[in-house]
Structures are given as structure tokens and as C-alpha cells.
Design a protein that fits this description.
Layout (H helix, E strand, L loop, with lengths): L15 H22 L3 H24 L5 H28 L4 H23 L8 E3 L3 H17 L8 H15 L4 E3 L12 H16 L1 H22 L6 H4 L7 H14 L15
Antiparallel strand pairs: 1-2
Helix pairs in contact: 1-2, 1-3, 2-3, 2-5, 3-4, 3-5, 3-6, 4-6, 5-6, 5-8, 7-8
């Protein structure tokens, strides 16, 4: 019996282009795991950065080509867990943490578990949280911090056994930053399809030139600065630091951000000899 023309068969296929980038990111994350197991730590770190590029492209390609789908969103989360959760944790463990015994694998597990929690929280807050900010350090940035540190250490022949405890602390703290409530700029308000001044293009060329001089060190420092920017931004925009500003499950909503902006604009009317009050952040 043929289907009625009034009831068309739903297309159950998947979009090729955005999921192709997601698959490339997943492959890069898997390759990073295999490379770290074989002792090729520099290659593993670079593969994580390649996964970051692919992760940044798949969503934008989907929006530009109008090929968003629920399947793509779920697939992207699974790929991110491998590339930015498992791969950096295993890379850090194989490079510097395995000689620490239980402390080493616990630090790696804290990072891995926090990455999973970060991705799960992000998925549940889609459409609720303010898109201008990330709640907690984004998993790609956290992975870049770990990968950049190991890439730099490998390139300059740092003995990982000399800094194993430092790597354990950095790995665990990076994981905790992912599940924190610290505010991080998402840069999603940037109009990538808009026009810019010619000077902006020259500055972008300069940035690429600077990175190319010492990519390991410059990328590593860049992501360390970004990781520290969250606590700084949060502390500067609240009246009094509370536990809920550091950890919790309340999303950074647009209403809260608008309330912060209103409070900030109201405080401008206060006398200049008084210290301006900071704004609460959910």
C-alpha cells in the first residue's frame, strides 16, 4: 500500500558536511589517545588542537548551511567527550602522572569526570543560558590548556617526573574550572559574516605570525590567561563572593545578565568618591 501524498515519509538521513567535521574531530581525539599510549606526546597534543578546530567548524558550518539536527548535536557531544575529556586526561596521565600511582590516576579521573559533567550541564542549558558567556571553562579550552602544557614541556625537553605533582594539580584544577560557575566570554556575539575594518585583518595576520613563531608556548599561555579570566570576570562583577558564584547548577541566564547591566548602569549615578558596587552573578 502506497503512502498518501498528504503524509510524506520523514527523511531519516543525516547531514554529511557538519558531521564530517565532527567525525574528523573524533578521529583527532582518538589519535591523541593512541599517540600518547605510544609515547608520541607532541603529536597527541597537536591532535587535540586539531580536534578543537574541527569542533569549532562543525557547528558554524551547520548554522551557515542550515543543516542543524538533533543527531548532530548528540554526536558532537559524544565526540567532545572523547577529544576533550578522555584524550587530555589520558595524555596527562601517560606523560607525567603514571608514576604518582593513585594520585596520578585520580587527578586524571577528576578531569575526565568534570568534562562529562560540563558537557551534560551545557546540553541541559541550551536555550536558557546567556550565549555571550560560558558557565565554567569550556571543555575545548580546558583540553587546550592541558595539551598546550604538555606540548611545551615535550618541545623543551622538560622531565615530566620533575613536575608530576604540578601537572596533577593543574589537571585537577582545570577539571574543576569546567564545572565551576565562573563566567567566561564565549565570543558568540561576534558577527563572523559581518564586515570589518582593514586594520582588523592586519591584526589577525599579526596574531597568526606571532603564534607561528612559538606555537606551543604562545597557545599555552593564551589558554592559561583565558582560564584565569573566568575567576577575574566573576569577582569583578559581584558584590560579595558566595559559594553559588563558584559552584552550583544555576545557569547564567539573560535575565541575570540584564539585571547585572542595570545594576551597573544605576551605580554610575552614585558619587564619584564612592567605590562602585559590584554586580551579582547567578
Amino acid at each position: 500500500m502506497q503512502k498518501s501524498p498528504n503524509h510524506p515519509v520523514k527523511n531519516k538521513g543525516i547531514y554529511l558536511l557538519p558531521n564530517l567535521f565532527t567525525t574528523a574531530g573524533l578521529f583527532s581525539g582518538f589519535y591523541a589517545v593512541i599517540s600518547s599510549m605510544n609515547g608520541h606526546f607532541e603529536s597527541a597534543a597537536i591532535a587535540i588542537f586539531i580536534a578543537m578546530i574541527c569542533d569549532g567548524l562543525d557547528g558554524r558550518v551547520a548554522r551557515l548551511t542550515n543543516t542543524q539536527s538533533d543527531f548532530g548535536a548528540e554526536y558532537d557531544s559524544m565526540a567532545d567527550m572523547v577529544s576533550f575529556g578522555m584524550a587530555p586526561a589520558i595524555l596527562a596521565y601517560n606523560w607525567a602522572l603514571q608514576d604518582l600511582g593513585k594520585i596520578g590516576w585520580l587527578a586524571a579521573f577528576i578531569y575526565c569526570a568534570c568534562a562529562a559533567l560540563r558537557l551534560a550541564r551545557f546540553n541541559t542549558q541550551v536555550g536558557v543560558a546567556d550565549k555571550r558567556f560560558f558557565q565554567g571553562l569550556a571543555s575545548p579550552a580546558a583540553a587546550a590548556l592541558i595539551a598546550g602544557s604538555i606540548w611545551s614541556g615535550t618541545k623543551y625537553e622538560v622531565d615530566p617526573t620533575d613536575i608530576s605533582y604540578i601537572v596533577a594539580i593543574i589537571t585537577a584544577l582545570t577539571g574543576l574550572l569546567m564545572v565551576s560557575n565562573f563566567r567566561y566570554h564565549s565570543f558568540k556575539e561576534v558577527d563572523w559574516r559581518g564586515k570589518v575594518n582593514f586594520i582588523v585583518m592586519l591584526l589577525l595576520v599579526g596574531v597568526f605570525v606571532i603564534i607561528s613563531v612559538e606555537p606551543a608556548i604562545i597557545l599555552c599561555l593564551g589558554f592559561y590567561i583565558y582560564a584565569l579570566s573566568g575567576p577575574v570576570i566573576t569577582i569583578k562583577t559581584i558584590k560579595k563572593l558566595k559559594v553559588g558564584h563558584i559552584v552550583g547548577d544555576e545557569p547564567i541566564s539573560k535575565k541575570a545578565t540584564q539585571s547585572d547591566n542595570h545594576s551597573r548602569s544605576s551605580s554610575h549615578s552614585a558619587p564619584t568618591d564612592k567605590v562602585q558596587q559590584k554586580d551579582d552573578v547567578q
